[in-house]
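Lab notebook, page 48
Experiment: co-folding of the full assembly
Goal: obtain a model of how the components sit together before planning crosslinking
Operator: M.T.
Materials (sequences as entered):
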Amino acid sequence: MIRFKSRVLGVMVVSVAATTLLLLLFGSTLRLPPAPANMSFLRVPLRALNDFQQQQQRQQQQQQHPNAFSSSANAQESCTSGGAQRVEGLPPLYIITPTYPRAEQIPEITRTAQTLLNVANVVWLVSEDAPAPTPALTSYLNESSLNTVYLRAQMPAKYMKAKNKPRGVANRLAGLNWVRANAKEGVLYFADDDNTYDLRIFEQMRWTKKVSMFPVGLVTKLGVSTPIVRLGKVVGFYDGWIANRKFPVDMAGFAVSVPFLLTRPNATMPFTVGYEEDGFIKSLGITSADIEPLAFNCTKIWVWHTQTKKNTAAVPIAQNNITMGTNLDVIKGLLWKDPKGTATTTTKKKETKKKKS
Ligand SMILES: *[C@@H]1O[C@H](CO)[C@@H](O)[C@H](O)[C@H]1NC(C)=O
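Observation: model returned without errors.
Model output:
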C-alpha cells in the first residue's frame, strides 16, 4: 500500500489515473468516422459520462477522506459543464443565433446551448440586437463551456419605424461577416434560439458542399416547409407562403458551405421582411440543381419552429418585510424588466403577429 505525503498529491494521482482510464475506455469514441447518414445520435455524450464517473470517484474518496474534496465540491461549475467536444478532422459548424432581450431570452439561449453541447466542433456565434450587451446573456456565454462568440448589431434606425420590421437581419449579417473574416472551412447555419433541433441534422449538414436544404416543422398552417424532392433532386418547394420567392424556405431549413460562401463575396441578406432567406440564397448564385437535399431526401423533419409563447415583463417584487433579506432580493435581479416599462398587473400586451408564421 502506497502512502501519499499529502492529500493533495493523492488527489492529483487519483485524477490522473481516472482520466487515463477514461481516455483508454472511451477515447476511441472521440475519433468519429465521417458517417453523415446513420450516425447514432442518442449516445450518452462522453462528457456527461466523464462527469458522472468523476463525481462517483469523488463521492467514494469523500467517504474515505471526508475533507479531501471540499474545495472542489464548492467550486463554481460552468453552466454547461464538461466542455464541448472537439473531434480532429471533423468540419466545424459555424452556428449563428440571432437573439434580442426579452423575457424568454435566457431560457431559449439555455435550450439552444444545451442542444449544441451535444454537437462536436461548433463555433456558436450569438449575435444580439440590443443597445447594449445584456449582462445575463454575456455572463451565460462566458460561463458556458461551448466555443462561443458574442456579437452585437442593431437594426438600422431607418427600419425601426416600419410596421413590419426586418428583425434579426443586422445581427445575422454581423455573424456572416465574422465567418467571412475568421473561417475557412466547415459550414454556416442560421439557428434561431426558438427552434428545436434533432442532433442528426447537424451531423448531416456538416458535409454540405454548396447549399443543403431540409424540412422545417411547425411552419405556417401547412405544418412544414420543405423542398419537394423527386429521385434525389429538388424539383420545387412546399411552403405556406410561396409569394414570388425563388427559394421559399425557412431560415432554419438550409446550410451553406463556408468555402463556397467565400467564393461569393457579395452574398448578403436583404432587410426585406419575408424575403431574408430567398434574398440570401439568391445572392449565393445557385440553381435548384446545386441544392443538396438532406434528412434522407427530405423525408425526415429534424428541425421545428417551436415558437415559445410570449411572456410579459415581470411585475416588480414588493419590497417589504416578507421579501427583504430573502432569496427574492436575488431573484428580482433575474426577472425580465422591459426597459420601455410596459409591465402592468392587469393588462396583457397584445402580440402583433407579423410575417408568414
Ligand atoms: C435519395 O434519392 C436518390 C434517388 O432516388 C437515391 O439514390 C439516394 O440513395 C437517396 N438518398 C438517401 C440518403 O436516401
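Interpretation: Confidence is low (pLDDT under 50) at residues 1-6, 20-49, 65-75, 343-357.
Next step: discuss with group before ordering constructs.
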